[in-house]
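Can't attach files on this board, so I'm pasting raw text. These are the components:
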Amino acid sequence: MRWRIPVSLALVPHALALWPIPRTLKAGTGFLVLSPQFSINVNVADPPQDLLDAVSETEGFLKTDKLQRLVLGRGSSDAGALTTAAVLPSLTLTLQNTLPVLPISAEAVKDVANRSEGYTLSIPGDGKAAVLSANSTLGLFRGLTTFSQFWYDLNGVTYTNVAPVSIVKDIPAYVWRSFTPTEEGWCSQSYSRTVDSCLTLLAICKSFPVADVKRTLDAMSWVKINMFHWHIVDSQSFPLSLPEFPELAQKGAYSSSEVYSPADVQEIVSYAAAHGIDVLMEIDSPGHTAIIAESHPEYIACSQASPWSTFANEPPAGQLRLASPATVNFTAALFTAAARVLPSKYFSTGGDELNTQCYAQDAQTQADLKKAGKNLEQALNTFTQATHGALANLGKTAVVWEEMVLEHNLTLSNNTVVMVWISSENAAAVAAKNFRLVHAPSDYFYLDCGAGEWIGKDPEGNSWCDPFKTWQKSYTFNPLANISAAQAHLVLGGQQLLWTEQSDPQNLDSIAWPRAATSAEIFWTGATRPDGAPLEGTEALPRLHELRYRMVQRGVRAIPLQPQWCVLRPGLCNIDS
Amino acid sequence: MRWRIPVSLALVPHALALWPIPRTLKAGTGFLVLSPQFSINVNVADPPQDLLDAVSETEGFLKTDKLQRLVLGRGSSDAGALTTAAVLPSLTLTLQNTLPVLPISAEAVKDVANRSEGYTLSIPGDGKAAVLSANSTLGLFRGLTTFSQFWYDLNGVTYTNVAPVSIVKDIPAYVWRSFTPTEEGWCSQSYSRTVDSCLTLLAICKSFPVADVKRTLDAMSWVKINMFHWHIVDSQSFPLSLPEFPELAQKGAYSSSEVYSPADVQEIVSYAAAHGIDVLMEIDSPGHTAIIAESHPEYIACSQASPWSTFANEPPAGQLRLASPATVNFTAALFTAAARVLPSKYFSTGGDELNTQCYAQDAQTQADLKKAGKNLEQALNTFTQATHGALANLGKTAVVWEEMVLEHNLTLSNNTVVMVWISSENAAAVAAKNFRLVHAPSDYFYLDCGAGEWIGKDPEGNSWCDPFKTWQKSYTFNPLANISAAQAHLVLGGQQLLWTEQSDPQNLDSIAWPRAATSAEIFWTGATRPDGAPLEGTEALPRLHELRYRMVQRGVRAIPLQPQWCVLRPGLCNIDS
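---
Top answer:
Structure tokens for the assembled complex are below.
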């Protein structure tokens, strides 16, 4: 169906509080008050419980957000208009197709090509009910998220100043919109490249405690991020407890309380799915596996070799003996054990920062290579075939870091998804090899850059990926730079990443938010705003301020991007104003 | 008195959990358990209430810190030794002189030259009572702080592994050890130099809410910082409510709830003093005063002039009309109103980043200068004489930023304290002019550097003082670099600073801690550790980890400096290991 567009609808006002901005949007300038008896009516036969839960959560936000407008006077001048404004009695949710109704949780973990995230939303300005419709419960969830962002508070009155609203069809520009607060098992990594750090946070109190992960998932869902890239283990810690390999966490976790039990993983995966988020778990290999030596020294080369910087990008050194058949079998079984209980169609096998010096000095690897009559690259190919094959047997698509296609000559299925991290410029090379890719470039999207060197005895050292990536810089990212039109279909989307050598629950939110929302908009909204103009920071900033203030109201410790003086005076703190 | 040093006392163990490390310290390697009935006995006649409160707080920390040792196994291997260890029954506090006993609060706000912060502490290893003695309650407070850092937890047993301990005399090397989480009134500043930002945090919910300030004062006291530099107002907001000038906050604060009432100020000042901290309030002048135009446009030149970057280092532009006699009188009265109710002997009048373009285009200032027959420098001298004179009338010493002595030719009392911020290299020039100085160099001690540009429409911009100042970099600071022995007495101490354009309660702790502790040790401990070796990061890091973990246990959101893998293996994550 199509919504009738009232005459008063116009281009989006300057500071409309939506993030990401819908791809289509018309809005007015009228005031509309939310009825104190406002209700959300689910016009869906046998509605799934997670849809009902999402409705309840949305109703909760409408009651508790209490965000005043971010203008001088904080909306006090609206008081008069509110006394005569129309009152919105309800929002009705409908599904537009006749297929069996699946829960949000089921829709969210489909292959990205088959996820239906679009929705249509109408908020009349005359007191008639609002209507949200979609082809799936996941689309309804996205629409609820949008609906919840319209509302301000003034003296207990909940209202919008942009009625009526018509969003004819808001469908994401890219199917893969992720965030990697790489819950990398509370290890952490990546001296010179950072990619394999895990969320040290988690390391401290059971990796990131489940509550911190859930809060992060909440914030992700508010900006329609649909993938959680969970780099759950790394060189320093193995917090993932697997029934088939209990020794890995027993000996590799920081402590028995700093472990993700199978129940914890299921809780997180279920929570994510109910919030429209698929979980891409990563067990990095063959590098970044030093901690496995605690339980299986036989599988690890150059374990804690010194100096670590010769054998790894971060301490401690240690890599899977990829030329050893026993190690190959172990790794394939490990991936199977981890992936088989996950609903996602994707699983990441890592593949970054492989160090050849580690293998050159490892007698067993040299013997294994000699025995097999292979060089290291050939052995890596065998390793990859076997480990990816294990995932294929489960119907899972492998996800790898860019080195696996750009630095090694492997036989990889072109179904493989490649994460581009070393430089944004490498996306073109990945696309040229006809691989699907996810943008995760350190030069735009690494949230931990700029926080200084954490390696000891290096007083003049800075973070390897200096400078800090401001939201403004991230927001200039162009997903199709150097990508031809014919290759554009290979670009699945993108994600911001947080490696956590210097993070834990104390600063998780403040590092991630609101900056991680910038890629969420780039990959949802795409190249242009509803008015046809390209995405541009000056327009975006007031909306990002609103998102940030709303996040704080909802308990996420997002940081201010500017002094409040600037927030209340859009543009006056621009460099040229 | 001198403590008898048992034979087993030796140089400090590697990871002794003290920060700052005492100037004299001998410790053993024995285990000593804190008695479940452990008590602190105050052997002081008519002990002041704040001393008793400090004792209670210390007893609380001993019960609740519950910090496990930061070694592999987290101290589990200590279990056997603890079963046979001696038990410490009590700590006795004594004063060593016969002067009238003053509260900590009174001792903490004396002229820095007259503060007595030293203490002597003995913790026998044989079950005899520990003894803490000092010449003042403030010294006892410092000693209690040290005492509280010795203790670990293992399965509910509180113990140390470095008994016996003898600290013959721990007296700070420098009298001025400060932190400037410049509660600058929740404004924020300093585009190109940052110095005048205020804690935007405060701006959001009543500047920094009083609770956040108190928590910061707590953390400061744990590392023996003795000055809180409270940059309470700035260009963007005037949250300081003064009975004599109510209009300044009424019109200049972000909202009526984002104001420090006189009661709030007194609460903070009292809380600080009871924790051994003097409050140096700053009302920056004549620059960084744009917000005063909201209530007194007659006193402000170039109010919100555009482009702001021509007239100020941060938006908005606006400076006191320093050539106007009425403005001079207003400013002197303002300083008097703010300073007269504060117990501190110090008050900062600011003086940074004066913009001459602002005055060149201000017709009134040009007329005022012409009428007085003065040039701008002469008028600034008159302004300074009058405003500093107002403080002198209250018995207060003026504190200024370095420009007032290095960039302007003013007649200033040599009693003035000068804060060196633009560059550490400028300290020598200040000393050469025979002014007392406090090190606050942006190239070592600015905590906000490296977090990106916050000015709008500047996607490639980074923070003006990039890169991020790591604790390791800060820790290399030498207070006496380029200072002659004859000038050394001019160096009062130093402080780390946080300007808060991009801070608020969400990230206050994580930006400040544990980094702000580095200067606390530099200026307490001085050039050498108790074993005579110079301060050096590799030795310091394990102690700083312990401080950080202890802060987290006490509710301060200090961030991890390294992955826990490194924390538990001192040295193995060094760059050369």
